[in-house]
Amino acid sequence: MRGKNRFISGLSKIEIKKLELGKKTGKTANFRNRCHGIILSNKAYTAKEIAAILAVGVRTIYNWFNHWESDGIEGLKTKSGQGRKPLLSIDNKEHIKAVDKAVKKRAQTGENILLTIEKELDLKGQMTMNILRPFLKKLITDGNGFAEL
Asked: In the chain, fewer beta carbons within 10 Å around the N or the C end?
């Protein structure tokens, strides 16, 4: 036998206005979906129905409910530090030196720049041009160019 359906109900007019605003103008699609999910729950949609409408799992909906109940609208925002960490960091001197060395080696011997960086930083096949290109662009535009090394 399944448990009762869980809803977010009894929202104040202010909370509904904040959620509506978040649904329309939120920075990320995830935040807008979360706001929409809470609004639908307040309108007595079940978690299963909300999950189908927003194309997410039912467990995800219950997580949104938990975040809403504990932290309100702030709980629906994605916290910083989530997601994959960058392979190369502009703040890491070791990364800058390894890339500088690889670029110089490429100019002198024609050696593959990606393989050189992988060896230097022990990355084992993770380095791609899609990772290196933005790093180089940021390195040059931030004024941390190779001339300083």
From this structure: N
- Please write the tens of the pLDDT for every residue from 57-95: 999 999 999 999 999 999 999 888 777 788 888 888 998
Q: How many domains does the chain have?
A: 2
Exposure string for 58-75, b = 16+ CB within 10 A, e = fewer: eebbeebbebbeeeebeb
Give, in order, the Cα–Cα distances in Å from 109 to each of 36, 96, 116: 57, 20, 12
Rounded Cα–Cα distance for residues 111 and 1 (Å): 65
Contact between 39 and 22 under an 8 Å Cβ cutoff? The reply is: no
Q: What is the pLDDT of residues 3-37, one digit of tens each?
A: 578 889 899 999 999 999 999 999 999 999 999 99
Residue at 68 is within a domain: yes
| Under 8 Å between Cβ of 36 and 23 | yes
107 and 133 Cβ atoms separated by less than 8 Å: no
pTM score, whole prediction:
0.60
Residue 148 CB-density burial (10 A; 0-12 exposed, 13-18 middle, 19+ buried): exposed
Distance in angstroms between the alpha carbons of the first and the last residue of the chain: 67
